[in-house]
Amino acid sequence: xxxxxxxxxxxxxxxxxxTQTCNAAVDMGITTGNEKGxxxxxxxxxxxxxxxxxxxxxxxxxxxxxxxxxxxYRVPSIQLGIVQSxxxxxxxxxxxxxxxxxxxxKIRIVFPLYNEEVHIVARKEIGQFSDLSGRRVAVGxxxxxxxxxxxxxxxxxxxxxxxxxxxxxxxxLTLLKEGKIDAMFFVAGAxxxxxxxxxxxxxNLHLVPVTNSKILRYYPAAEIPATTYAWQxxxxxxxxxKAVLVSYASHGDCPxxxxxxxxxxxxxxxxxxxxxxxWKTVDLRYDIKGWKQFECVKKILGLPVGEQKPFKPNPVLDxxxxxxx
Length: 325
Known about the structure:
The chain has 325 residues and is of the alpha/beta class. The chain is built from twelve helices and ten strands. The N and C termini lie far apart (49 Å).
């Protein structure tokens, strides 16, 4: 334990004086998402980058955002997680689970990442969001960001599916191809590997546009460009949520998290050139309203540091509360 602490301390000293490479190896972990999703791909990109700077980053798949919030709290060796900002806002005020609520309030943002598009893949007869009324729809596993976002979209729009199946994306796509369900949700940054590799034009599926005016009051509009997927000829309008990299408050003085943040900040251009296409859209300075960021990360960004403002709800939360009431 002493050896591990000293290695991390040495690494922090190097970083503090502007040296990008940590010669003392540090072990860290990041919890991501489904292995066919963008979170996991981002994790692998970060693993490759960190390995060049003395940080051995282990990448763990998970069932989604809520699972990741629990993990960064409970597992000391997994200091980092990727979650959806709307999920983070929701659980921070969810009185039905006091433990999760308490944990979420102590979550800190390391960096904002990218917008995740809401993908709704369906049979061709489902032309718009309202056509999901009365249908059999896969909405993701319990604890996943996809599940919560799908639930919120239905609440906001007033559309009621006939059946919501809590299953993962791989199983959902299989059932969709077999005609056993009508549509599936998957919230992830495009392009999604699952849809690139396992859907062809012969499957006769398409992306359902999300243009419902009630939904657009709560979620920002986005677009999945034409030919993002080989079977997708036209651009598709949808909505998006921001993915964020987080850690638990107790890691705030941890040299590992701060060292990781420095390496990421100094080498974003490498990820843009060689990583997942979504790295091109990442703005590490993007302001996530209402959420606290580590002091050491604020220093890296050149932002004012000092006493944190009292916690207040993320603006996304206001929309969520209205949608659920």
